[in-house]
Write a structure and sequence with these properties.
The structure is a single chain. The protein is of the alpha+beta class. Among the domains are: 127 residues, no CATH class; 142 residues, no CATH class; 183 residues, no CATH class. Helices cover 50% and strands 16% of the residues. The strands form three sheets. Strands 1, 2, 3, 4, 5, 6, 7, 8, 9, 10 and 11 form an eleven-stranded mixed beta sheet that branches. Strands 14, 15, 16, 17, 18, 19 and 20 form a seven-stranded mixed beta sheet that branches. Helix 8 runs parallel beside helix 11, helix 10 packs antiparallel against helix 11 and helix 13 packs antiparallel against helix 22.
Amino acid sequence: MLIHYIKVALRNLLKYKTQTILSIVGLAIGFACFALSVTWIRYEMSYDTFHPNGDRIYAVNATQNGVIVKDLLNRPLIDHFQKTFPEVELATMVEYGKLPLEGDKSDTCIYFLETDSAFQKMFPFPFESNLYHQPTTTGAYPMVVTRGTAKLLAGKKGLNGAIYDQREIVGTMKAFPVNSRFHCDAIATIVPTPQVPDGGGYSRNFIHAPNYLDFFVQLKEGSNAEDFAKKISTLYYLGDSLHFTLVPLNELHYRLPDPNTSYKFSHIILFAGAGALVILCALFNYITLFVTRISIRGREIALRKVNGASNSQLFLLFTIEFLLLILMALFIGECLVELCIPKFITLSGILLTRGAIYGETIVYALLLILISFIVGIIPICYFRSKTLQASIQSQTGPARNLFRKATLILQLIISIGLFFATTVLFKQVHYMTNEGAGFDSRNVWYAEMMDYNVHDYADKIAQIPYVTEINKECSGFFPGYGVTRISNGTQSYCLMRINRDFIRFHKLTVLAGEPFKEGEKNVIMINESMLKLQENETRESIIGKQVMYGNVVGVIKNFYSGSQTEEQEPIIFFPTQEKQSLVSVLYRVMDGKAKEANEAIHTLLEKETGCKEVEFQSMEEHLEKAYRSERALLYMLGIITGVCILISIFGIYSMVSLTCQQRRKEIAIRKVFGATVAQILHSFFREYALLLGIAALIAFPMASYLMHLWLEQYVRQTSIDAWIYLVILVWVALIILVTIGSRVWKAASANPADVVKSE
C-alpha cells in the first residue's frame, strides 16, 4: 500500500511538473540560505562556552565618550581591581601577538598569548603543567606550545630549550578549541617591555591580533555582576576618572569582534531572518499549490471514496505526496550547501569541518520537515474529511480562492519588503563610502618606507606621469590615522598635525573660518565633535577664540575613515612642523593606473635608497574593510531578495497556470459571448494588480519603519526617497505582467469548441 501511494504521489508531481520543479527549487534555496546562516550564528555564540567558571568571567573594557579605548588598560589595573573590589576573585590581562620563525622561508609564525599566573587559574583547560613555575636553562622567559606546534617546530629548531625572541619552550599544552578567543599556538609568561623610543610594541611582535589586549575578571560565587558593573562604571584611578563596562565571556566574540576578520553579529542575524522569510515564502507557495492541486482532483478523491478508501488512507496518501516534495527539496538543498561550503567558510571565517556543518544542516532539515508537516496537516485533514458530494462538486462563491490569494499576498509582502530593504542598504553603503565619509578616497594611495624620509623624494614622485597630485609634509594614511589621544579625566580628544594641502587633498569641508595660512603659529582647527564640547559656542562664534592650545581659525566637518556607527572623536588640528622627517607619503593616481603608478614609485625609491621594501596601501581598500560587514550583508541580502522574488514569481506563474486550467470552460464561454482576448487578459491583470496593491500597502510601511530603525545606528544616514517606493512597485508590477501574460494569452487564444469538447 505504501509503495502504491508513493507511485501515485510521484505521478501527481510529474503531472504538474512545472509547479513541482519551481516549488523544489524555492524550498531548496531557502533552506540552504537559512541553514548556513543559523550554523554561522550558532558558531559565533559557541565561543568560550566550555570554561568551568565561564559564567563568572567577564571582560572589562575601558571607555571614553562611549568608545572602547585599549590605551587605558595596563597591568597595574589588575592589582587595583583586586584590592579595591572584594567581588573580584581573579584578574588577568592577555596580550596577543605573533613570533616569526627566523630563517623560515614560508613566513611561518607562532601566534601566542602573553599572560600571568592568574590566567592559568582562570582558564586551566590547556595546561598540562604549571607554566609559571617552569625553570629555564638560559634565563629566558618560559613558553609552552601546543602539541601540533611542537611537531611543526621539531623539524626546524628543536623543541625543549629552543628560544624564540627571549622565550624558551619548556613544554607542551593542549590546544584551545577553534571557537575560543584564546585559540593560539603558544602561551608565554610576561616579558618586560623594552625601553625603546616607540614603546616596544612592534619589536615584541604584538601585531595582527584581535584587539591586542584583553582584561578579564572572575567574580566570586554569589557576586552580582550588575552591581559590580555599576561600581566600575566610574572609577578614580591614577588621577583620572575612568569608565569601565562588563561583557560576559561567552558574549565577547560577537559583541566585540575582531574588526579585521569578523562581521557584525546583528548582520548575521538579519541574514538568518531573511533566510527564514525565504523558507516561509517558499513553504506557503508550495502549500498553496498543494491545496489547489488537491481541489482540482475532487473527482479523483470522490472515486477513491466510492471504491472504499477510508479517511485515514486518504490522509496517508496526501501526507506522502506533501512530504515527498519536501524531502526532494531538502536533498537539493543539501547539495546546494555542499556547493556553497567553500565560499561560506571564506566569507564567514568559521573553522568548522564539513561534517560539523552537515550535521547542523541535517538537524535543521528535520526541524523543517516537522514544521512543514504541522502546517500542511490542516489542509490535508480538510480534504480527506470532505463528503463525497463535496468532493464531486466544485466549491463556489468568493471563498473559493481566498486561501490562494492570502498566501500570494504574503509572498508579495515578503518580496517587496526584502527588495525595499536591499535598496535602502545599497544606498546607505554607497553613501557611507562616498559623500557620507566626509572626504574623497578615490584613487588615493599610501607609500611607506621604514627608516627613510620618503618626503625627500616627494617632488620626484609627483613627476611620475600616473600621479595626479601628492600631499606633502603631512603624515597619516587617511584622516584620523596616527592621531594622539589625550584624556583630562572626564573627556578625551585627539591631536593631529595637518597642513593646508591636507585639507585640499582630501577635499575636507571647512564649515567656518578657513584653513591654516602659511607660517601661522599658535593656531588650531577643530572638528564638529570638538565644537560640541565647547559650551554655548557655534561654528561662527568659536572662530578667533582660545581653545586649549591656540586660537581657532576654522571648523572642519566630521569625517569617517571607519565605521559610522559611532560619532567622530573630538579632534584638534595643528599646523605641521616645517622640514618633517616622514616615512610615508600620500598621493592620488589616475583612474585605472594604480598598478603602473606604484611600480614606478617602487622603482624610484629603490633606485634612490637601495631599499626594496616599500609598503603600498589603498584608501579605498581601507574603506572596503571598514564596511566589509555592510557589504557582505548587502551581498547576501541581495541573493536572498532575488530568490524570494523568484519564488513569488514562481508562485504567481503556477497559480495562473492552474487557474487557467480551472477556468478553461469559463474563458471559452466568455469568448463565445463576445469577449476579446484583451478583455480576458485585463480581467486577470486587474485581479493580480489588486493583490499587488494590497501587498504594497502592507509591505512598504513595515519595511520603511524597520529600515528607519536600522539606519539609526549610523551617524550619517541616507535618505529614503519617494522614488524608491515607485521604482520597486513598477518593477514588481512589470515582472508580474510578463509572468502571467504568456499563460493567460495561451488560454485566451484557445478555440472555444476544442475546450468544450475536451471538457
